[in-house]
């Protein structure tokens, strides 16, 4: 019940933010996601002034979305509501979970409530990546993100990059399959063994 009330409050806050963000000819896109089974990274603080000595949060789940802006969008607004304590990051270009400070552009971890984050401003045409994540490894679940801008843009989910352990398991599996195939006995060309087996 508390989660439902919290979600209702944060959805109302998002609706308010989306209403404020609308321009005369603004394009508005809303999408939902769930970080429950998402890949993980070591989350950094939202404020770059705290790097490199700031706190880090390993094992934090995230989902990333490519945002391609075809024409200038001034202003461009992002608003996310979550059923968990969440943060939202914006990167110029690609997001690298192994180096979350690279391409960093903006972030917010507590706008209206810990369950509603937002930021906005002018963006040049090009490729950006938005990342929705929990505050730490214990925070994950469903979310809704609304993006609005005066210019044309598209949004697509970023396919998760397999973790090194997944590549290792794939390699081990292929190696095991290769060994199993090589161990198979070559078919016998002798009829004696075949006749003895039938008797």
Q: Say what oligomer this is.
A: single chain
What is the number of beta strands? 10
* Residue fraction in strands: 35-45%
Radius of gyration: 25 Å
Q: Percentage of helical residues?
A: 10-25%
Give the rounded overall mean pLDDT. 79
Structural class: alpha+beta
Q: Which segments are poorly predicted (pLDDT under 50) over 5 or more consecutive residues?
A: 20-24
Q: So what's the CATH class? A: Mainly Beta
Q: What's the domain count?
A: 1
Order of helices and strands: HEEEEEEEEEEHH
Main β sheet profile:
6 strands, antiparallel
**How many helices?**
3
| CATH second-level architecture | Sandwich
- Give the terminus-to-terminus CA distance: 74 Å
| Coarse shape | globular
CATH topology label = Jelly Rolls
Signal peptide: 1-26
Protein name: PEP-CTERM sorting domain-containing protein
Domain Ice-binding protein C-terminal: 160-184
Keywords: Signal
């Amino acid at each position: 019940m508390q989660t439902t009330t919290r979600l209702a409050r944060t959805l109302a806050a998002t609706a308010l933010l989306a209403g404020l963000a609308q321009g005369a000819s603004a394009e508005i896109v809303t999408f939902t996601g769930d970080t429950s089974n998402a890949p993980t990274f070591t989350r950094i603080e939202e404020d770059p002034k705290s790097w490199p000595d700031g706190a880090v949060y390993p094992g934090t789940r995230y989902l990333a979305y490519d945002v391609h802006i075809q024409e200038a969008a001034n202003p461009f607004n992002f608003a996310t509501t979550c059923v968990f304590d969440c943060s939202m990051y914006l990167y110029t270009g690609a997001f690298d979970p192994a180096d979350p400070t690279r391409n960093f552009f903006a972030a917010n971890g507590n706008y209206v409530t810990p369950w509603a984050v937002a930021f906005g401003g002018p963006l040049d045409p090009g490729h950006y990546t938005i990342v929705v994540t929990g505050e730490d490894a214990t925070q994950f679940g469903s979310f809704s993100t609304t993006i609005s801008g005066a210019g044309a843009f598209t949004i697509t989910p970023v396919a998760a990059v397999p973790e090194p352990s997944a590549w290792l398991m794939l390699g081990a599996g292929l190696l095991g399959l290769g060994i199993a195939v090589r161990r198979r006995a070559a078919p016998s060309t002798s009829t004696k063994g075949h006749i003895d087996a039938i008797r």
